[in-house]
Amino acid sequence: MYMTIKETAGYLSIPEQQIESLIRLKRIRAIYDGDQYLIYKDQFATHLRQVEKYKKLAEELLNEPIPEDFDVKDED
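Structure for DNA binding domain-containing protein, excisionase family, as requested:
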Protein backbone atom coordinates (compact mmCIF):
# COMPACT_ATOMS: atom_id res chain seq x y z
CA MET A 1 0.00 0.00 0.00
CA TYR A 2 1.31 3.44 -0.91
CA MET A 3 0.86 6.59 1.16
CA THR A 4 1.28 10.29 0.46
CA ILE A 5 3.73 12.43 2.41
CA LYS A 6 0.90 13.67 4.65
CA GLU A 7 -0.32 10.15 5.38
CA THR A 8 3.22 8.96 6.07
CA ALA A 9 3.83 11.84 8.48
CA GLY A 10 0.69 10.88 10.39
CA TYR A 11 1.63 7.19 10.34
CA LEU A 12 5.11 7.86 11.73
CA SER A 13 4.06 10.78 13.96
CA ILE A 14 6.68 13.14 12.55
CA PRO A 15 6.32 16.44 10.63
CA GLU A 16 5.76 16.44 6.86
CA GLN A 17 8.91 18.54 6.36
CA GLN A 18 10.97 15.79 7.97
CA ILE A 19 9.46 13.20 5.60
CA GLU A 20 10.32 15.43 2.64
CA SER A 21 13.86 15.83 3.95
CA LEU A 22 14.26 12.06 4.42
CA ILE A 23 13.07 11.50 0.84
CA ARG A 24 15.61 14.03 -0.49
CA LEU A 25 18.36 12.34 1.54
CA LYS A 26 17.18 8.96 0.17
CA ARG A 27 16.60 7.64 3.68
CA ILE A 28 12.99 6.84 2.71
CA ARG A 29 12.26 5.18 -0.61
CA ALA A 30 9.55 6.96 -2.58
CA ILE A 31 8.29 7.20 -6.14
CA TYR A 32 7.15 10.37 -7.84
CA ASP A 33 4.05 9.94 -9.98
CA GLY A 34 4.33 13.36 -11.65
CA ASP A 35 2.09 15.00 -9.06
CA GLN A 36 3.20 13.78 -5.65
CA TYR A 37 5.53 11.40 -3.86
CA LEU A 38 4.17 7.99 -2.93
CA ILE A 39 5.80 6.00 -0.14
CA TYR A 40 5.48 2.24 0.33
CA LYS A 41 4.10 1.59 3.81
CA ASP A 42 5.74 -1.80 4.44
CA GLN A 43 9.27 -0.34 4.42
CA PHE A 44 8.56 0.93 7.96
CA ALA A 45 7.43 -2.42 9.44
CA THR A 46 10.82 -3.31 10.95
CA HIS A 47 11.39 0.21 12.23
CA LEU A 48 8.02 0.33 13.98
CA ARG A 49 8.57 -3.10 15.57
CA GLN A 50 11.91 -1.90 16.96
CA VAL A 51 10.35 1.32 18.27
CA GLU A 52 7.66 -0.66 20.10
CA LYS A 53 10.30 -3.02 21.49
CA TYR A 54 12.38 -0.12 22.88
CA LYS A 55 9.31 1.66 24.26
CA LYS A 56 8.42 -1.52 26.15
CA LEU A 57 11.99 -1.90 27.42
CA ALA A 58 12.12 1.74 28.58
CA GLU A 59 8.78 1.34 30.34
CA GLU A 60 10.05 -1.76 32.17
CA LEU A 61 13.20 0.09 33.28
CA LEU A 62 11.22 3.10 34.49
CA ASN A 63 8.82 0.90 36.46
CA GLU A 64 11.60 -1.07 38.15
CA PRO A 65 11.86 -0.14 41.82
CA ILE A 66 15.03 1.53 43.01
CA PRO A 67 16.92 -0.83 45.34
CA GLU A 68 18.01 0.45 48.71
CA ASP A 69 21.68 1.21 48.93
CA PHE A 70 23.24 -0.74 51.76
CA ASP A 71 26.32 1.50 51.79
CA VAL A 72 24.44 4.62 52.82
CA LYS A 73 25.32 5.64 56.36
CA ASP A 74 22.74 7.22 58.55
CA GLU A 75 24.30 10.48 59.67
CA ASP A 76 21.49 11.65 61.95
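Residues 45-63 form the longest helix (19 residues).
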